Amino acid sequence: MLGTQKEQELYRRMVQRHAPRPKYLRNAVLAFLGGGAVSLVGQAVMTGIVSLGMTPKDAAIPTAAVMVFIGALLTGWGIYDEFGRYAGMGAALPITGFANSIVSPSLEFKREGYVLGMSAKMFSVAGPVIVYGLVTAFFASLVRVLLVGP
User: Fold this and answer.
1) 46: Cβ–Cβ under 8 A, 6 or more apart, which residues?
2) Are 111 and 102 a contacting pair, CB within 8 Å?
3) DSSP secondary structure string, 62-128?
4) CA nearest neighbour of 126 among 104, 107, 106, 98
5) What is the C-alpha to C-alpha distance for residues 150 and 146, in angstroms, rounded to an integer?
6) What pLDDT score was predicted for residue 81?
7) Distance between the two ends of the chain, CA-based, in angstroms?
8) What is the mean pLDDT of each run of 10 residues along the chain (150 residues)?
9) pLDDT (0 to 100) of residue 2
10) Are 87 and 31 in contact (CB under 8 A)?
């Protein structure tokens, strides 16, 4: 055993006293501002698409596609990871964060080749999200059909 129980307790308290304190308020404000910035860009993209003649409902899918493209492009350039370092969950939660979670492992393993590196690792993080999302959507649809009808 490593020391007595009293020594272990003293050590635990010393570590706790010297451990850096999380900055919850700062992190929450940065996440709010970061997510707001992503939302602002998304709204600008949607407004631009609507100005071309689409209805807001029809513009939702092209807006999502453009935001995924922007997230992937900024990840490839190394900008989105820097943004995520400060924005935290505000960068991870929007659809641009999903693009980041697909592109980042691909870039990390590109030295291993296109098939066994980039393609195989592309969905290592996002793959389970896609699978569980599809399964959940299936069961939610099944419940709706059983309760409401086709």
Assistant:
1) 56, 59, 60, 63
2) no
3) HHHHHHHHHHHHHHHTTHHHHHHHHHTHHHHSSHHHHHHHHHHHHHHTGGG-IIIIIIHHTTTTHHH
4) 98
5) 8
6) 92
7) 65
8) 78 88 91 96 97 95 95 93 93 88 78 71 74 90 90
9) 60
10) yes
Query: Structural domain boundaries of the chain?
Result: 25-124
Instruction: Return phi, psi of residue 109, to 5°.
Output: -105, 20
Whether 71 and 97 have beta carbons less than 8 Å apart is answered as yes
Cα R_g (the chain), whole angstroms: 22
- Residue 68, pLDDT score: 93
pLDDT confidence of residue 100 = 87
Q: How far is CA 97 from the centre of its chain?
A: 3
94 torsion bin: left (phi>0), alpha (psi -120 to 50), beta (else): beta
Residue 66 burial (CB count, 10 A) = 18
Question: Which of 135, 130, 110 minimizes the C-alpha distance to 120?
Answer: 110
